[in-house]
Amino acid sequence: MKDNSSVKIVALTEAGLRLAEQLNAKLENSDVWYKPKPFSEKVQYAFQAGEPLIMICATGIVVRTLAPVLASKLQDPPVLVLDELGQFVIPLVSGHEGGANEWGRQVAELLNSQLVMTTANPYLKPKYAVGMGCERNCPKEELECLLMDCLAQANLTLDQIGSINSIDIKADEVGLIELAEHLEKPFNTFDAAELSTVEHLLSTKSDYVFKTVGVYGVAESAALVGASQLTNAYSELILNKHKTAKATCAIARAYPSDARRQS
């Protein structure tokens, strides 16, 4: 969820309005819409403008209202549905990518409500992977310092990291090899074709990097592919590329697939 987004809390009944006002007092940068008119047009406009929505009404109403304007899980804003008594919180749209799942947990805690998750993955423990790129002969010490800073920013520990990953032209990079050995983590490299499969998930794209190595970003791409390898499932960035003068680092996560969970 974007930090500068204005949350729209939509209520259609008096009981829902009381809940909306209660939530509005607890949330920052939020507005209450009570029986907005014209309903569909106003809600759809807010959704298309990227505004997160808390809909205090029946799920069916929300589905019918938003169905015509749903675009992609990678760009749609998060949507939560609450019953008018505030007993249940349902992340309905953009659970992973838009942050509705985590936002739903926060709202449920504020209201002492029950979070109702309709996807299996969030119940599973995620796997994390680090992606790194660097100039030739970048020292291990600089790489390790950058990695530790990134872990701190992501609120992760080294024990939670499953692998360190990069592009195949760095397979012989001494600093990366020494870092992985020192931290006792697997070091994996992937070719440009493999890394290009996650191009649509990158936070930024560098034409310079593309012309140099054939992908638009080494650290983020390697982290995403590495996390997918750990779980055989879809991955997402949790820390965009950070860099020093000689190195870059990003962190991705993926939840185990249903098949792995059931095995």
From TrEMBL:
GO biological process: cobalamin biosynthetic process
Stretches assigned to the Cobalamin synthesis G N-terminal domain: 43-120
Pfam families documented for this protein: CbiG_C (PF01890), CbiG_N (PF11760)
Domain CobE/GbiG C-terminal: 129-252
Superkingdom of source: Bacteria
Signal peptide positions on this chain: none
Protein known as: Cobalamin biosynthesis protein CbiG
